[in-house]
Amino acid sequence: MKNIIQKAIYAALLLLPMTVFGSEAAKTGGTKKTLISTYIEGGWVMHILLLFSIGMVWLIIDIWMRTSSKKMSPIEDVTIAQELFRAGDYVAAYQTMKGSFSPFAEVMRAGLGSVGYGKDSTEEAIYSTVEKINSKLQTRINYLSVIGVCAPMVGLLGTVGGMKGAFGSLGTAGLSGGVGELAGHIGEVLVATATGLLVAIPAFMAFYFLRNKLQGAVHELHEVTEHLFRNAPYDYLKDADVGQEETYAALPNWIEVPQA
């Protein structure tokens, strides 16, 4: 059911600009125009703008889902980590988080892997991992800004090309062709510019909204993780290899290890 709803939203957002153009064309023109004919009138740039609109909708849905609390800090992961921390089983906590792919689990693995080096190292590992997650998601959000900037320019490019052709035909036919025909050509080529704006406006709105949503989600992630490590017994965990991962930094081969 959830997938069906998402597909319905996707289709509605994608076809909204075309629907607007089709209705406006039907009102102003003497004859009704279909969505396909309106799309064709915009020229070759409409194909690029269509790709922009698909990318915009996909990014909005993807980022919205990724920045939700259920994805960033799943309740089941937080609950398991709390129980294992209460039991003092930090090795099991690391192994459990290793089996999860949520951002919370990633931050927890970083913190537990550095817990044997003291409080400062643990907090630094947590902070750097949170920043890495934030940077990764922010990059996705920035693509919406790119679409918002490029879409009007692509639409304007199509309009300029169409205007060039319209005035070229006017120069060939002279004024005998009539001003009405020229106005009709100009109205057609402006479809590309209007489409570019209709793609750019929701892209910018989604960019600012999702950026603020990401900041809240990252703040919550950092707060939940820090709360778990707040009273960690670092003195007892000193030099402990909680992660039990293989290390590759051995002694230099020119140093002779004394035989036991």
| β-strand number | 0
The major pleated sheet works out as: none
* Contiguous uncertain segments of 5+ residues: 25-30
* Helix proportion: over 70%
Short recap of the structure:
With 260 residues, the protein is mostly helical. The chain has helices at residues 2-28, 35-41, 45-66, 69-72, 75-87, 90-98, 103-113, 119-173, 179-229.
SSE layout and pairing:
Layout lengths: L1 H27 L6 H7 L3 H22 L2 H4 L2 H13 L2 H9 L4 H11 L5 H55 L5 H51 L31
Give an overview of the whole structure:
With 260 residues, this protein is mainly α. It has one domain (2-229). The chain contains 9 helices and no strands. Helix 1 (2-28) runs antiparallel to helix 3, helix 6 (90-98) runs antiparallel to helix 7 (103-113) and helix 7 runs antiparallel to helix 8 (119-173). The protein is elongated and about 95 Å long. The protein starts with a helix and ends in a 31-residue tail after the last helix.
Essential attributes:
260 residues, mainly alpha, 9 helices, 77% helix, 0% strand
